[in-house]
Amino acid sequence: MLNYIYPFLLLLLMWQCQNDSTKPQTEDVKFGETFSLVRGEQVEITGEGETLTLKLQNVIDSRCPSDANCVWLGNATATFTASNAQESDKELQMCIGDCRPAPVRSKHTLTVTVGGTGYNIILKEVLPYPSSEERGDKKEVRMVVEVL
After folding, report:
1. Per-residue pLDDT tens for 32-46?
2. Whole-model pTM above 0.70?
3. Which residues make beta-bridge pairs with 12?
4. Burial 20-58 (b: 16+ CB within 10 A, else e)
């Protein structure tokens, strides 16, 4: 009897893991509120009769670890897709740190038009800040979106 239970439990465990990894999370926030996203998540920002959907596609973090001395400060780049009722999947890229030729910046404000509506998208930070001790792939971005 035990010979049949263990494979069945293993199959259930694998099926549950597959469902969790393929389902994107959606969070609802208001314009002007700070929110966080990890890769693959999307958020619907609402208010003032507008709705903007942002999805974090990728984060590349090459910043100098906090416990190291580096020649170059490095940067963190986040790629998003933005859409609203009038336009879908407009690709956006934001960068903090040493984003040459732009000056070094601790946050990035991008003014963008999606479907005829203007937005200020502010990338506040990318967490966690790198260290030589930890190598985590799970990066989180904190940001704010405002309607112009």
Report:
1. 999 999 999 999 999
2. yes
3. none
4. eeeeeeeeebebeeebbbebebbbebeeeebebbbbbee
